[in-house]
Amino acid sequence: MPTPLPRLLPTLLIALAWGPALAEAPAPARQAELETLLYQDCGSCHGMTLRGGLGPALTRSRMRAYDREALAALILHGIPGTAMPGWAPLLSDADARWLADHLQHAAPQTP
């Protein structure tokens, strides 16, 4: 017996909402490289646990205040007039979006 459309609707909506993000996700090996970059390179200013250092904390609650695309743009282009560099020479748009998503969902909680 076919599954009724009302039961499939939530699954279809999730697939439509997350499909583009999942399709652009870097390969698992690249994700591991990005996570290393985040905790080592970004961590050199933002603290090795991302809870703050010379730069502000990159905690989940703080990162969720940004739209994912805006956060990705900040990663790629930096903040002029500050010590925050743009990472566009080293990262693709998909890399920056993955980092933004990672910061919003997997970064440390606020202490």
Protein topology:
Elements: H1 5-23, H2 28-46, H3 60-63, H4 68-77, H5 93-105
Q: Mind telling me the CATH superfamily name?
A: Cytochrome c-like domain
Helix proportion of residues, in percent?
A: 55-70%
Provide the low-confidence segments as ranges.
Answer: 8-22
CATH class category label: Mainly Alpha
- Strand share of the residues? under 5%
> Element order, helices and strands?
HHHHH
Mean pLDDT: 84
- First CA to last CA: what distance? 51 Å
Major beta-sheet overview: none
Mind telling me the C-alpha Rg? 17 Å
Task: Assign the CATH architecture.
Answer: Orthogonal Bundle
How many strand segments? 0
Tally of alpha and pi helices? 5
Briefly note the CATH topology name: Cytochrome Bc1 Complex, Chain D, domain 2
- Shape descriptor reads globular
Give the class from helix and strand content and strand pairing. Answer: mainly alpha
Number of domains: 1
Could you please describe the fold and organization of this structure?
By secondary structure, this protein is mainly alpha-helical. It has one domain (27-105): Orthogonal Bundle (Cytochrome Bc1 Complex, Chain D, domain 2). The chain has five helices and no strands. Helix 4 crosses helix 5. The chain starts with a helix and ends in a 6-residue tail after the last helix.
Question: Which characteristics define this entry?
Answer:
mainly alpha; single chain; 111 residues; Cytochrome Bc1 Complex, Chain D, domain 2; 5 helices; heme
